[in-house]
Design a protein that fits this description.
Elements (H helix, E strand, L loop, with lengths): L7 H14 L4 H16 L3 H13 L4 H15 L3 E4 L2 E5 L5 E3 L6 H20 L4 E5 L17 H14 L4 E3 H7 L4 H4 L9 H19 L13 E10 L2 H6 L9 E8 L5 E5 L2 E5 L1 H4 L4 H4 L19 E6 L7 E6 L7 H4 L5 E5 L14 H7 L4 E6 L19
Parallel strand pairs: 4-5, 4-13, 11-12, 11-13
Antiparallel strand pairs: 1-2, 2-3, 6-7, 8-9, 8-10, 10-12
Length: 401
């Protein structure tokens, strides 16, 4: 992973004066004027703020102004920023991270109980179950003085709570530590996700544990990056954290990102709310336009691998050498896992409980879903416990919204 000072800052400072002098573009001026007129007619502070906010979104230099703001933070050495409900930290290694509210032990125990219910259901139905703990990058990072980071403590407590309840649990945090995988080599700088190469590695660890615990058979070639073409896009990606803070909040600059496509032949059928597509993995599951176009503020190259987050996706592997079916409950960290995992089974059903289950008014839970679709394996992959207290990531009892 690169380490560099972003010398574009120097150029940016030189052009900032021009941008500032152009601040009051015609659209911005007219929008502000109309907001003031409306306020005079009907004094409402809430409406006035909404009008100004909508005007600023149409402002020609809105992204540049955010970048100028981020530059001021960098120059002054300020290492954290509040953006709406988000609290973003520049860690001691200059990688960006979210700081989440602390999660108390009662919530950790309650969440573990919820997962154990699904695990126990699977045991009764003789369906192998596994929980996969995917660590967020702040698990390995050091926050600046005065900012508390409880991610590691909470994550370790949660894994221990799951194991205490007899839930078969794979901690990828433990695997990264065992294999001496550094955070800087595994995660983006400006985005909260791990890089695609880490997703492929994680898929390998999942398959190995499924094999050792349940006799799961997998094709080793699908997990070896030597069997993939890797196209590197350098200085290409401004992640979710970088979009919110501005690109100069960290001196490390933009992220690189890789497009990893199989050298071997693949044929899959993809079903989700967009419809049905059949063809090679990279032409169906992938949305390559997301990475082929460099659009820092309007595009998300990470979503290339699964097309984004969907309530339900089904991948049928027409080249499968078995008839196995997997149901996996996931968050966005699985975007770079599920495509590679799908190459090892006949059918992969992917559920994102944060999005609800689109168009399904009969099946009410993951357990019912797994039973209906005759799952051979059920897995849950979540990135820590960041939203456990609100129920958005760890839905109680794994019910559909």
């Amino acid at each position: 992973m690169k380490r560099k000072f972003n010398y574009n800052i120097i150029v940016f400072v030189l052009v900032s004066a021009f941008i500032i002098t152009s601040w009051f573009s015609k659209d911005f001026y007219n929008g502000t004027k109309n907001a003031v007129k409306d306020f005079v007619k009907e004094p409402s502070l809430e409406n006035f703020i909404d009008d100004i906010d909508n005007t600023s979104k149409k402002y020609k230099y809105r992204y540049e102004s955010v970048d100028i703001h981020s530059l001021s933070y960098l120059i002054t050495g300020t290492k954290y920023m509040e953006k709406g409900e988000d609290f973003i930290v520049r860690m001691d290694n200059d990688y960006l991270a979210y700081k989440y509210s602390e999660i108390n032990d009662a919530v950790i125990e309650q969440t573990a109980d919820s997962c154990a219910e699904l695990s126990n259901f699977c045991k009764k139905e003789n369906i192998p179950f596994m929980y996969i703990y995917a660590p967020q990058k702040q698990y390995f990072g050091s926050f600046p003085t005065g900012v508390n980071n409880t991610t590691r403590e909470e994550g370790d407590k949660y894994v221990a709570a799951l194991r205490k309840r007899g839930v078969n649990t794979l901690s990828l945090a433990e695997k990264m530590i065992e294999q001496n995988i550094k955070m800087e080599d595994a995660y983006f700088i400006t985005d909260h996700h791990w890089i695609p190469e880490t997703g492929l590695w994680a898929t390998g660890e999942i398959c190995k544990k499924l094999n050792s615990d349940y006799g799961f058979e997998y094709d080793a070639k699908t997990l070896d990056i030597k069997n993939y073409d890797v196209k590197r896009y350098e200085d290409w990606f401004l992640g979710s954290q970088g979009k919110k803070t501005g690109r100069y909040f960290t001196p490390l600059g933009l992220d690189d990102i890789s497009l990893i496509t199989p050298k071997f032949e693949t044929e899959v059928e993809l079903k989700d709310k967009r419809g049905v597509k059949t063809g090679a993995l990279e032409d169906t599951v992938y949305e390559k336009y997301r990475i082929e176009e460099k659009a820092l503020h309007t595009q998300n190259p990470y979503a290339t691998y699964s097309g984004g987050d969907f309530p339900e996706q089904v991948i049928i592997n027409k080249k499968a050498t078995n008839n196995k079916k997997i149901v996996i409950v996931r968050d966005s960290f699985a975007c770079t896992v599920t495509p590679f995992l799908a190459l090892n089974v006949a059918e992969t059903r992917i559920l994102d409980l944060r999005k609800g289950l689109h168009g399904n008014s009969v099946i009410k839970s993951v357990s019912e879903y797994a039973k209906k679709h005759n799952a051979d394996y059920v897995m849950v992959l979540y990135s820590g416990l960041s939203s456990a207290s609100s129920g958005t990531q760890m839905a109680p009892h794994y019910d559909f919204n």
